[in-house]
Amino acid sequence: MNEITNDKAKCELALEALKSLEDPEIGLNVVDLGLIYQIDFDENEKKIYCSHSLTTQFCPMGESISSGILNALEHAFAEYNVEVKVTFDPPWNSEKISEEGREFLNS
Q1: Alpha-helix residue ranges (DSSP H) falling in the chain
Q2: What's the first-to-final CA gap in the chain, in angstroms?
Q3: Is the dihedral of CA 68, 70, 73, 75 positive or negative?
Q4: All domains in the chain, ordered by first residue
Q5: Omega into 24 within 30° of 0, i.e. cis?
């Protein structure tokens, strides 16, 4: 996984929370699918900024995935306000899938 963060320890907690969220069409969690690009923490403002992608710009479940990410982070970090942004820069591709994700998809 190649997520960008300004707080590695909190990012690991966030990623664990996000592993419970699956892409409904693929059945793989959004972390191992490689959809999470960046998670930053602003301690002064108590905010989390998360950018993620989708497997395609026309993903019919895009809103559901974004909402799920927002909800998972709000639950894991109740004292923070969470901002979630979809980005296609860089575009998602199958090379972003983790080794665990590849094993899951090939089973």
Answers
A1: 8-18, 62-76, 99-106
A2: 20
A3: negative
A4: 4-106 (3.30.300.130)
A5: no
Q: How many CB atoms are located within 10 Å of the residue 43 CB?
A: 10
The side-by-side arrangement of strands in the sheet containing 36-42 is 4-5, 36-42, 47-52, 81-86
Picking from 29, 97, 40, the residue whose alpha carbon sits closest to that of residue 65 is 29
Digit-coded pLDDT (tens) for 55-73: 999 999 999 999 999 999 9
pLDDT 10s digits, 2-61: 679 999 999 999 999 999 999 988 999 999 999 999 999 999 999 999 999 999 999 999
